[in-house]
Specification:
heterodimer; A: 295 residues; two-stranded antiparallel sheet; two-stranded antiparallel ribbon; 71% helix; B: 329 residues; ABC transporter involved in vitamin B12 uptake, BtuC; 2 strands
């Protein structure tokens, strides 16, 4: 069997794939965080809970309505996005004038509540969610065996990330959004409904988290705690990447996912903490983050 | 935090460096309550409350008086609980030394975490402290001396200075009460010292403090380490009171809990964190017997506090005429 650095190629590639999958979710989630933070100046602690909601919507529409994965992929972002819009309109929007920390604290409370409600209703243990029949099985790439669903997740998340990047950097709506980030008062005086823009942005971020949740459902188990486990890692990703740039958030997400996967091969004990260690090193060497401007 | 600091500024103008007149009455009432509490309530419950009250007061030293929101204080509280429990159980140290090593360990952790975290401000500071404390959580999960999921169980209380058996009667209670009172007094002295004034200046306007020539980073780090040390004192005592130290104490939920206690009681007030801790601990006790998960209720209380009630219980009271007369804050 071929070896690299004394590690079988197959094991190395396997962990690289795991890293790439984790990285896909880090990228999707930190992208949503960056989009929301860019305009609302709120760190959305409930992002993990919204990711969990997405996975649960997939599970529940399947068991209650018999709708399959592909419907869930469309329904979950819509439902969770609408829920996000409701929360933003009714509560979060009252906090914009205050210190940004209150937005963080509010969404933290929201996350605790949602997580608690789902644990109450469905228990703390995870429930399996089968991948769609079209994506079961795998292909042999010669050097490794690639489960089809995992390949799909990598491709889908990459496409989604690039689409969101293009939406924000290349379209007219995105230009308005970026202008509102720079100077909301000026944009409002041009006759653009900035509060509506804020609501849509929050809904977009929440919808992205839900989409990531549906993608994740067949890979990780659907459990009420799946969101809080991942969100703290994503915070570290966001600190490393800096929230100034959309592309920065995406690239950092993938890089750190891969770094985590590689650590699992070479020094498994540290794989839980490697992202935090990288964060600490980056903060010491380059406090503004890899892609960030000092806020 | 902009809006509560405005409120604090208004009241702060009249606030001179020591409690006067009516203020002393409050201190005396509090001391009297400390003395009669074990006779009217369960001593273990009161001791738990005092530990968490001190924890919240330590946290408030950082958030309320320096303006830094740490989302990682569980590391200091839970870390110290582990150190104290290990020293008391495995090494057989006397309780005062066991607690001291907890405090020292927490202070050292605070020095490392603080030095990294103060490199960024505001929201980033909160996220960095959260991430670093999560790193400490995973370290605790894997290090052998913490016994992973089981935690350190049946920690002996030992005998204080080798003479006072803490197992007997209310000895443990009096020990905790005295340490609690002394620690709060120390926090009060820090807040009202020239050092504390500079911390408040940094909270109000960091740029201006820098331009006045203060080494802001060093003051922030100092406040962070002191806050960590007091949180460690609370955690170490908690380990001896409850006779165990587990992963719950270092988990991020604990960091959230102490924020909620402080927010609910009143950020930037002396009495607030203790009142907040009392309400939350009592609430948890009540909910322990029902099947409603605690996090649902704490989450909702969190949202209500942030939306409607940002000055907290003591902060709202302090703005009434009675509150101004008594000089709450």
């Amino acid at each position: 069997m071929p070896m690299i650095f004394g590690i079988p190629v197959q094991a190395l590639m396997g962990q690289l794939l795991v890293g790439l999958i984790n990285g896909s979710f880090y990228a999707l989630l930190s992208l949503g965080l960056a989009v929301i933070f860019g305009l609302l100046r709120v760190i959305n602690f409930a992002h993990g809970a919204q990711y969990m909601l997405g996975a649960f919507v997939a599970l529940l529409v399947q068991t209650w309505l018999g709708l399959n994965y592909w419907f869930a992929l469309i329904l979950a972002p819509l439902i969770v996005g609408a829920f996000g819009a409701l929360v933003e309109r009714s509560m979060l929007s009252r906090l914009y004038k205050l210190d940004h920390l209150y937005g963080l604290l509010f969404t933290f409370g929201l996350a605790l509540t949602l997580e608690g409600l789902f644990r109450w209703q469905f228990g703390a243990s995870g429930q399996p969610y089968a991948p769609p029949p079209a994506l079961t099985g795998g292909v042999n790439l010669g050097f490794m065996f690639l489960p089809l669903y995992r390949g799909w997740v990598v491709v889908a998340s990459l496409v989604i990330c690039l689409a969101v990047w293009a939406l924000i950097e290349k379209t007219r709506l995105g230009a308005t959004l970026r202008a509102a980030t720079e100077n909301p008062v000026m944009v409002q005086s041009f006759g653009i409904n900035v509060p509506m823009l804020l609501t849509l942005t929050y809904a977009l971020g929440a919808g992205l988290a839900a989409l990531a949740g549906v993608l994740a459902a067949p890979i990780y188990q659907v459990s009420p705690l799946m969101g809080s486990n991942i969100i703290i890692v994503v915070f570290a990703v966001v600190v490393v990447g800096g929230m100034g740039s959309i592309m920065g958030a995406i690239v950092t997400g993938y890089l750190l996912g891969i770094a985590e996967g590689l650590t699992k091969v070479f020094y498994p004990e540290a794989s839980n903490i490697v992202i935090f260690v990288i964060m600490a090193i980056v903060l010491i060497l380059r406090p503004a983050g890899l892609f960030g401007k000092e806020a | 935090m902009a809006n509560h600091t405005q409120a604090a500024g208004k009241a702060g103008a009249a606030n001179v460096a020591r409690p006067r007149g009516a203020g002393w009455v409050l201190v005396l009432i509090a001391l009297a309550a400390l003395i009669i509490a074990p006779f009217v309530s369960y001593p273990v419950f009161v001791m738990k409350l005092l530990c968490f009250g001190l924890f919240a007061a330590a946290f408030n030293l950082l958030l309320g008086f320096t303006g830094l929101l740490s989302f990682g204080h569980a590391a200091f509280f839970g870390g110290a609980a582990y150190f104290t429990a290990h020293a008391a159980k495995v090494w057989g140290w006397q309780p005062e030394w066991a607690i001291l090593i907890g405090v020292a360990g927490a202070a050292l952790l605070g020095l490392v975490m603080g030095a990294i975290a103060i490199r960024r401000q505001g929201i980033y500071f909160a996220m960095i402290t959260l991430a670093l404390s999560q790193m400490f959580f995973f370290a605790c999960l894997q290090m052998p001396f913490t016994h992973g999921e089981d935690g350190i169980q049946s920690v002996p209380k030992g005998s204080l200075f080798g003479v006072i058996e803490l197992n007997q009667g209310l000895n443990m209670y009096w020990f905790v009460a005295v340490v609690f009172a002394l620690a709060l007094w120390a926090i009060w002295l820090i807040v009202h010292s020239p050092y504390g004034m500079i911390l408040k200046a940094i909270r109000e306007n960091e740029q201006r403090a820098i331009s006045l020539g203060y080494s802001v980073a060093r003051y922030k780090l100092g406040a962070f380490v002191m806050s960590a040390a007091f949180a460690g004192l609370a955690g170490g005592m908690k380990a001896l009171v409850m006779e165990f130290a587990t992963l719950t104490d270092v988990a991020w939920q604990m960091s959230g809990e102490v924020i909620l206690m402080t927010l609910l009681g009143g950020i930037g007030t002396m009495a607030g964190p203790i009142v907040g801790a009392g309400v939350i601990i009592a609430l948890q006790n009540r909910l322990a017997t029902s099947d409603v998960p605690v996090t649902v209720v704490t989450g909702i209380v969190f949202m209500i506090c942030v939306l409607l009630f940002r000055r907290g219980i003591v902060g709202e009271l302090a703005d009434t005429r009675l509150g101004r007369m008594l000089g709450l804050r």
